Amino acid sequence: MSNTLFPVFLKTETARFLIVGGGNVGLEKTETLLKQNPKIAIILVATYFHPKLKEIIHKNENISFYERAFEETDLENKDFVIITTDKPEVNRNVRELAKAKGIKVNAADQPDLCDFYLGSIVNKGNLKIAISTNGKSPVLARRMREYFTEVIPDNIEDNINDLNKFRSNHKGSFQEKLADLNEITSGFQKNKKQKNSKKYKQLAFTLAVSFLMLFIGYGLSTIVSFSDVKYGLSHVPNEFYGMLLIGFLAQLVDGAVGLGYGVTCATSMMLLGINLPAISGSIHTAEMFSSGVSGYSHYKFGNVNKKLLLWLAIPGVFGAICGAMLLIYLGNKYVKIAYIVLSIYTMIIGIRLIILAYRKVKEKKKIGNTGFLGFSGGFLDAFGGGGWGPIVTSTLLSKGRKSNYVVGTVSLAEFFVTLAAAVTFFASLGVSHWYIITGLILGGITAAPLAAKLAGKLPQKTALLLVATLVIVFSVRILLKVF
């Protein structure tokens, strides 16, 4: 065992400290002790005193100082010695003399001379956390102190006082008291998740804006001229406003339920008679933003299984390219057949959502043919404008895998799949369907805050059944319209 330190919180009201050295390090050690107890008894011995240290000495009557070299008599009636000089021979001499008298020593930046370390300390009222790196990296200990100081709420003192009153007034047995205190303090983990959620929202907003600007910048600089943009803005197609509504509703569904964005958009846009390749191309371009933000956030929070990611993303990219190319071919040559195939596909997705609603949690089972799952998910997602989540996520969850790793890994893989599909559609269609993409993005952005509030409000089973009903009804209507 390399780290044998035993943390102890020392009462300093009667402790007597000797600090040898008055430079920058002596100043730092003096401030550290005073911060923990302004009335602590300190004696300083040094041939030089930092100007700021002199100010501190004159302001604190509990600090004595001698401007001279160290003498053995300075160790009399001392409990702890802190050595801060830059002279190794002096430090070792003080250490040996103190050790002979049974006095505990701390030597700055010389772990081999130390009996104890002064760790970085987090102060929040009665809450105190000491951090040590076993003398290996004081800088890291300081950074950890800054981190915990930031994340621990300032009102933690109120919580401590309330818990102390509750414990004092509790009349039950020890086990009952412990159980009640554990139940009360379980809310602290929820507060941590709320803080992480807040940081995630800030990160998501920043990345979403970055992706959006990249898309607009690329389109304006390499594909669309300024005159084209000016003309397009003055002749916005009526379909743009329909896309706003579809993007709003699809994001509302996806944000509240966790899936269904693609199939909701696809069935709605087919009812409007939009060109099939434009449907899938627009959906994947718009979805690229949300999947990128979601996948990156899951990666930062450690919800991604890297091995599973490779087995899903790589085959998924090839599947998406194949699905996109097939849809472009059928959409241009055999429009009616493509509509029939897509309508049947979305209807199957709707049925699968119903199955998901009534699915029971299963025991963990081995996942076979993960690469084929990724390929088929990417292929059908690109071909049908959606379905990656209902196909891939539901399959992995049905095998008993943990939901956070499944959702995180599938979300990050989805970014690469949607990117591959979007690039393929762009190569064939260009940006002629810019109004569809812009409408979906703007509609989704508008719905996102409301969707976030709805998340978790509607029971998962009910939500899935509603989405499934919507998709099936739309699919049937499209089939009736075709025939």
Terminal Cα separation, in Å?
A: 76 Å
Strand content: 5-15%
Query: What is the rounded Rg?
Result: 33 Å
Coarse morphology: elongated
- Low-confidence sequence ranges: 190-195
- Main beta sheet strand tally, sense and closure: 5 strands, parallel
Q: How many helix segments?
A: 18
Determine the mean pLDDT. Answer: 75
Number of strands: 7
* Helix content bin: 55-70%
Which structural class fits the helix and strand makeup? Answer: alpha/beta
SSE string, helices as H and strands as E = EHEHEEHEEEHHHHHHHHHHHHHHH
Strand order of the largest sheet: 3-2-1-4-5
Question: How would you describe this structure to a colleague?
Answer:
The structure is a single chain. The chain is of the alpha/beta class and 483 residues long. It is built from 18 helices and seven strands. It has helices spanning 24-36, 51-59, 88-100, 138-151, 156-169, 174-185, 187-223, 226-234, 239-257, 261-271, 276-300, 306-333, 335-357, 370-384, 388-398, 403-429, 434-454, 460-482, and strands at 16-20, 41-46, 63-67, 80-83, 104-107, 120-124, 127-131. Helix 11 (276-300) crosses helix 14 and helix 11 (276-300) crosses helix 17. 35% of the residues are buried.
